[in-house]
Amino acid sequence: MDKSELGLGTWQFGPSHGFWIDQDQRSSRAVLKLALKAGIRHFDTAPSYGNGLSEQLLSSVIQTRDQVQLASKFMPKKPELVRIDVQKSLGRLKTDYLDILYLHWPSSRLALKPVMSAACSLIKEGLVRQVGACNIPISYLRELEDLPITVLQIPCSLLWDRSIAQYRQYAHDHGMALVGYSPLGLGLLGGNHPSPPEDGRKDLYVFRPEAYAHYRNLLDLLSRLAERKGCTSAQLALLWARSQGFSTIVAGSRNEEQLRQLIYTSHLELDEEEISLLDERAEALTSCAPSSWDNYFGHRW
Q1: What is the number of alpha carbons within 13 Å of residue 289 lying toward its C-beta?
Q2: Is residue 88 helix, strand or coil?
Q3: What is the dihedral of CA 149, 150, 156, 160, to 10 degrees?
Q4: Which of 137, 241, 265, 300 has its CA 20 to 30 A from that of 163?
Q5: How much is the mean pLDDT over the chain?
Q6: 71 with 44: CB under 8 angstroms?
Q7: Is 176 helix (H, G, I), strand (E, B) or coil?
Q8: Is residue 266 pLDDT above 80, yes or no?
């Protein structure tokens, strides 16, 4: 199976919701410049990443618009407000259009079809090339099948492999691109956080008593396989994600060295045995989360 394209996620550049509170903007710009130099063309951002900071940092570095693919997002709200929010993002990104506009999270308290219809109407205006949805249950998607929604974004991580096969099949059946995010598990799969970090990640389900042993077992397996392959645990986790049949995997880096390691995964391969072993550990860990969850944050807006 061909590897997924590697894209750069930018949540870590804009502190929000208790995550990435100590990120340095100079490091963020250095990462963006290295990504462009290395040929990365897919950049994923959102207004909620640092209250627009992530979008602004992107615009401060990108010089040639038609050589990159910019994806941003909007939160569910009244349909008439969607266009206003997109125009704000365009202003921060200093561009006339988005390649992809995602609904960031669906709402259980709001009718989604009018909201997504409003987003899709922006295609005709030229403000948006494609409309997609993040973190959306398949049951919600079935209600939107008559709309031109062409991209899905879901977690693709050893910390959360629930329903990947179903989404992959749904995307294939409906001619949709499938984009995965958080392949490094918010940095937890690099082996540096056997205990809860002192930030928003401490509340993730993997640190609950019923899941913690499985999380540690996964880290141990990553370490053993990485040593055998001569790479890092983070590279191995990304390789697994890039083997899952997604069109693009969006990974985050907080400094240039992290990004160099991720870029190098284009030169590495996992064999079937390694993938199978990682699949087993991921399934055991994910099964510890409540059955009603469809994302590893465990919430719906």
Answers
A1: 22
A2: helix
A3: 30
A4: 265
A5: 95
A6: yes
A7: coil
A8: yes
**Bridge partner residues of 194 (DSSP):** none
Structure confidence at residue 18 (pLDDT): 75
Q: 136-172 pLDDT, tens per residue?
A: 999 999 999 999 999 999 999 999 999 999 999 999 9
- CB burial class (10 A; 0-12, 13-18, 19+) of residue 77? middle
Shortest CA distance to 204 belongs to which of 279, 280, 278, 289? 289
Q: Is 285 exposed, middle or buried (0-12, 13-18, 19+ CB in 10 A)?
A: buried
Residues with Cβ within 8 Å of 200's Cβ and at least 6 positions away in sequence, in order, are 17, 18, 19
Amino acid at 200: G
Using the predicted structure, report yes or no on whether residue 1 has a pLDDT greater than 70: no
CA dihedral 245, 287, 276, 297 (to 10 degrees): 40
**Residue 183: CB partners within 8 Å, gap ≥ 6?**
156, 157, 189, 237, 238, 240, 241, 242, 249, 250, 251
Q: Distance between alpha carbon 23 and the CA centroid of its chain, in Å? A: 18
Helices 79-93 and 53-61: crossing angle in degrees, nearest 10, is 40
Tell me what pLDDT residue 108 has.
83
Is 156 in contact with 130 (CB distance < 8 Å)? no
| The pLDDT of residue 299 is above 80 | no
> What sign results for the dihedral spanned by CA atoms 73, 264, 178, 219?
negative
What single letter denotes the amino acid at residue 269?
A: E
Q: Name the token pair of 201.
A: 């990640």
Tell me the backbone φ, ψ of residue 253, rounded to 5 degrees: -140, 140
